[in-house]
Amino acid sequence: MRFVRSYHILGIFVIVMIAGPLHFAYEWSGENFIVSLVAPVNESIWEHLKMVYWPTVLWWVAGYLIYKDRKKISFRRWHQAMAISVIFGVSIIVVWYYVWAGAFKVEASWVNFSSMVSIPFAQLLAIHVYRVSKPRWIYAATGIFIVISLSLMMGYFTYYPPNLPIFISP
């Protein structure tokens, strides 16, 4: 259990360090199609979710694949916690933005950057979920389904966004 806590606290810093450059990756790549699936292509809230979503998923998947046997990580608990981290992380960004932009009429770069507070909150909640959750297949399967669905949606909505405010670049 100590390993899981230490790994994901380190993950807070790693995810933040990946998220920053990811913001510019699409432009730096010469607008490469593959990069557009994992990096923001415009300034919409939806596209900015990729900056937290993909590094978080990468961190959790890599951690499981590397340490599952050495640290005897529970498949069910790990995937439940991963889904919580991803869902909570992107949800906080959406709420954070709309509270500042909608409620307080503040639209500034610092608001976008400060939304990275979602990463420590999501990781810490996920550590708690891993520690206390009952390892049930239905929870793990639901978590995996949600992460895969969000992954597909991240790519699809980049090129076919619905006409909703979250998808519109300010």
Question: What would you say this structure looks like, in words?
Answer:
The longest helix is centred in the middle third of the chain and has 29 residues, at 75-103. The protein starts with a helix and ends in an 11-residue tail after the last helix. It has 7 helices and no strands. The protein has helices spanning 2-28, 33-36, 45-67, 75-103, 109-114, 118-132, 137-159. Helix 3 runs antiparallel to helix 4. With 170 residues, it is an all-alpha fold.
First and last CA, distance: 43 Å
Describe the largest sheet.
Answer: none
Number of helices: 7
H/E topology pattern: HHHHHHH
- Share in helix: over 70%
Strand content is under 5%
Rounded radius of gyration (Å): 16 Å
- Structural class, judged by helices and strands? mainly alpha
Average pLDDT for all residues? 93
Low-confidence stretches: none
Q: Which term fits the overall shape? A: globular
Number-wise, the strands total: 0
Annotation keywords:
7 helices, 170 residues, 0% strand, mainly alpha, globular
Q: What's the helix and strand layout?
A:
Blueprint: H1 2-28, H2 33-36, H3 45-67, H4 75-103, H5 109-114, H6 118-132, H7 137-159
Helix pairs in contact: 1-3, 1-6, 3-4, 3-7, 4-6, 4-7
